[in-house]
């Protein structure tokens, strides 16, 4: 045999602490056909700084679709199917780098996915630039060993082969045709080179993670050995591996034979399907010949199906796949939304999910039974959703399993007429929905009965659009797109349906009120600024108070939300007002000349607006203007002190009762903002930040100029329509 090795690599990704699926880093690999060995090389590394500690990385594997993971232990939505993912842990302790190998023999051909993440996020809100997080990197590479000339076993044709030694198993493959109801594999005429009893092991199928359904049979002696498969995967190559369990140097000669049991499908004619499609798109014309012809054909076809029903092993129902958007598909039945279901043969619907871009969403199948269509009160419509091949024996086993796949069961009856199934991240394949009528006293009771079941099937990025407390986000890894839910207000789970840690409506209202009304503490600062004739500064504080109030009213995660304009605009204006408020306050304290102060006001505001557009959350967007303004203030104070030959400000009362309290409040506010905020305490720590900053501004504003008189609020009106003030200066001669 000729083996060919191939190597596939993807760029490393920086890992994140886990809080939702978007934090998991996804890798996608395509395993070629005839692969007999798959080896993953997993490389994890970390930085060398003191902030880097021991860390455990969790790596998940899945065939056909991204892994469905639940590191936080939250609840999944009702009716969702969840099968635990296969995962391993990689520990980074004293070593800076860790290399791990994962081997898979006879892997299934197609897409394989790897997802890696760090442990649960601590929930602390870190200001960009104040701390340097440790970088944890992860890279996955794939080696495959592929058999270039794998023998092909033809159905009904015996093929002699020789297993050279136990170390070199024999690999063959056979193509499973469509509508294959069963497969029979037989191993016979076993002869060893040492003329001893044969000991062989036969493995049918490939490994798929997280669950593998390989069929294994051990053959001993010289008797024939056989294995039967029900519902093998349609239109796929099936790998067969034969291993010798004998002596190390003994070869074994065997003869293999495979045969299929065909399933004869019954369905409406292609002409009827074409006519129904035209009618569903344009609608039939009343009284037209085409409409009358279709009606006549439908009646005749229905009569034909009833008469030949016993000769069919399944009834096909035509389904149209309608692509709506990215990871969004709707399946529409051509003839009618409801399908007839009987007890003689299962009704089959094909749900095509084999484009390679459909596995990143959720497949939703909903059944609704028409109670008036069922004559038997105890009858039940049993359904099964499976991949690769349909379940064709619902009336016999009812276990909803095929040869290499465990399906998902559903059932509706007169007592429970509705049923729903949600398949999270369905694997790339052809999916089938099988329905059949089952009677508790035997199938003879149901021969003449027929049920009408309305089927709704669609693929959606996020089930129920993540609900009212979640946001559906479309994620991308290279050209592959998949979706995930980011939950808010303490809600969790795959679709944000877990309310274990959810905030109550009262807590949400309290958070909104604290974050918005705390901005009213700017009113004393505005009043002080107006009283001291700092009208430009008062305007900036008013701007900050307004946009901070409505930004936090729009930023809330729950139901207490009010957005007066676009969220991004409110956020930008809030950040701009906050930084400009600090800028103008420090410049006002410097007591430079008015013309220079206003020039710095305008120039600084323009530069701050530019820097916020480049990086809105960077710490230097706030620290840079603050430090530059402090340099100007210190230089101005030194100049005034040297000019007056004493400390500036000269009044000890100014230092004790205004400057020191204002500086203290400002430092406490910065400490709370930078080091104490978390996702859980954000609503009150950030409210404290609002109060402290606003109060510090009121303390730090300098007194008004001595030559300016205070506002004459108590002055009486001297005229009817305006407040008059005599500013004329009288000059008197002193004699």
Describe the structure.
The protein has 735 residues and is an alpha+beta fold. The chain has 4 domains: 3-123 and 132-147, Sandwich (Jelly Rolls); 157-262, Sandwich (Jelly Rolls), CATH 2.60.120; 312-460, Sandwich (Jelly Rolls), CATH 2.60.120; 505-700, Rhopdopsin 7-helix transmembrane proteins, CATH 1.20.1070. The chain is 26% helix and 32% strand. The chain has 10 helices and 33 strands. A hairpin with a 2-residue loop joins strand 22 (319-325) and strand 23. Helix 4 packs antiparallel against helix 5 and helix 6 packs antiparallel against helix 7 (594-614).
What's the number of extended β-strand segments?
33
Biggest sheet character: 7 strands, mixed
CATH topology of the largest domain: Rhopdopsin 7-helix transmembrane proteins
What's the architecture of the largest domain in CATH terms?
Up-down Bundle
Q: What is the CA–CA distance across the termini?
A: 128 Å
Uncertain segments are 269-307, 713-718, 727-735
Number of domain modules: 4
Figure out the total of helices.
10
The helix fraction, in percent, is: 25-40%
Report the C-alpha radius of gyration, rounded.
Answer: 37 Å
Strand content: 25-35%
CATH class of the largest domain: Mainly Alpha
Mean pLDDT: 84
- Shape call: elongated
Please state the structural category: alpha+beta
Question: What's this model, at a glance?
Answer:
This protein has 735 residues and is α+β, with helices and mostly antiparallel strands. The chain contains ten helices and 33 strands.
Keywords for this entry:
Jelly Rolls, EGF, 735 residues, alpha+beta, 10 helices, disordered C terminus, seven-stranded mixed beta sheet, 4 domains
């Amino acid at each position: 045999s000729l083996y060919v090795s191939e190597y596939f690599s993807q760029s490393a990704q920086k890992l994140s602490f886990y809080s939702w699926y978007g934090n998991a880093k996804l890798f996608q690999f395509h395993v070629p056909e005839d692969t007999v060995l798959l080896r993953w090389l997993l490389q994890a590394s970390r930085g060398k700084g003191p902030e880097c500690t021991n860390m455990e990385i969790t790596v998940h594997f899945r065939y056909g679709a991204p892994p469905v993971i639940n590191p936080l232990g939250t609840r999944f939505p009702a009716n969702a199917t969840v099968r635990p993912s296969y995962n391993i842990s990689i520990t980074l302790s004293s070593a800076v780098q860790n290399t791990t190998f994962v081997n898979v023999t006879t892997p299934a051909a197609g897409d394989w996915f790897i997802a890696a993440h760090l442990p649960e996020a601590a929930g602390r809100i870190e200001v960009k630039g104040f701390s340097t997080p440790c970088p944890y990197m992860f890279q996955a590479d794939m080696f495959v060993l592929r058999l270039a000339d794998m023998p092909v076993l033809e159905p009904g044709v015996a093929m002699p082969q020789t297993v050279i030694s136990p170390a070199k198993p024999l690999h063959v493959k056979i193509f499973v045709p469509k509508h294959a109801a069963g497969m029979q594999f037989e191993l016979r005429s076993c002869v060893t080179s040492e003329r001893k009893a044969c000991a062989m092991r036969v493995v049918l199928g490939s490994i798929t993670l997280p669950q593998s359904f390989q069929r294994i049979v051990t053959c001993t002696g010289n008797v024939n050995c056989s294995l039967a498969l029900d519902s093998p995967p349609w239109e796929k190559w099936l790998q067969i591996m034969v291993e010798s369990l004998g002596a190390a140097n003994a070869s074994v000669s065997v003869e293999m034979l495979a045969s299929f049991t065909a399933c004869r499908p019954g369905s409406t004619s292609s002409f009827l399907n074409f006519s129904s499609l035209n009618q569903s798109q344009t609608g039939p014309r009343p009284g037209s010949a085409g409409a009358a012809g279709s009606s006549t054909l439908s009646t005749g076809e229905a009569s034909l199906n009833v008469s030949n029903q016993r000769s069919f092993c399944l009834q096909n129902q035509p389904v149209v796949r309608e692509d709506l958007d990215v990871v969004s598909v709707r399946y529409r039945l051509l003839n009618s939304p409801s399908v007839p279901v009987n007890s003689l043969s299962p009704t089959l619907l094909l749900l095509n999910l084999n484009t390679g871009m459909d596995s990143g969403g959720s497949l939703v199948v909903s059944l609704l039974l028409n109670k008036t269509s069922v004559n038997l009160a105890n009858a039940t419509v049993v359904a099964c959703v499976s991949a690769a091949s349909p379940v064709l024996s619902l009336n016999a086993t009812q276990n909803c399993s095929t040869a290499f796949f465990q399906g998902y069961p559903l059932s509706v009856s007169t007592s429970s007429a509705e049923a729903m199934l949600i398949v999270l991240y369905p694997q790339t394949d052809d999916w089938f929905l099988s329905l059949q009528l089952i009677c508790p006293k035997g199938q003879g009771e149901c021969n003449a009965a027929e049920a009408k079941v309305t089927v709704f099937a669609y693929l959606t990025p996020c089930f129920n659009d993540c609900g009212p407390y979640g946001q559906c986000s479309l994620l991308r890894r290279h050209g592959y797109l998949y979706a995930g839910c980011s939950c808010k207000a303490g809600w969790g789970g795959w679709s944000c349906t877990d309310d274990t840690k959810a905030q109550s409506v009262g807590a949400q209202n309290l958070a909104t009120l604290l974050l918005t009304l705390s901005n009213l503490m700017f009113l004393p600062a505005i009043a002080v600024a107006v009283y001291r004739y700092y009208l430009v500064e008062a305007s900036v504080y008013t701007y900050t108070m307004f946009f901070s109030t409505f930004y936090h009213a729009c930023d809330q995660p729950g139901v207490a939300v009010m957005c007066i304009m676009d969220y991004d605009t409110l956020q930008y204006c809030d950040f701009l007002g906050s930084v400009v408020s600090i800028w103008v306050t420090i410049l006002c304290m410097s007591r430079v000349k008015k013309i220079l102060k206003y020039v710095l006001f305008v120039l600084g505001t323009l530069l701050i607006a530019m820097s916020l557009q480049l990086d809105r959350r960077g710490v230097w967007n706030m620290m840079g203007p603050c430090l530059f303004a402090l340099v100007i203030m210190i230089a101005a104070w030194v100049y005034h002190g040297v000019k007056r030959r004493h400390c500036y400000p000269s009044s000890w009362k100014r230092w004790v009762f205004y400057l020191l309290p204002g500086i203290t409040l400002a430092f406490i506010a910065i400490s709370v903002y930078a080091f104490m905020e978390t996702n859980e305490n954000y609503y009150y720590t950030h409210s404290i930040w609002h109060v402290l900053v606003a109060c510090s501004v009121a303390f730090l504003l300098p007194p008004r100029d001595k030559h300016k008189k205070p506002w004459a609020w108590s002055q009486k009106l001297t005229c009817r329509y305006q407040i008059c003030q005599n500013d004329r200066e009288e000059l008197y001669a002193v004699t």
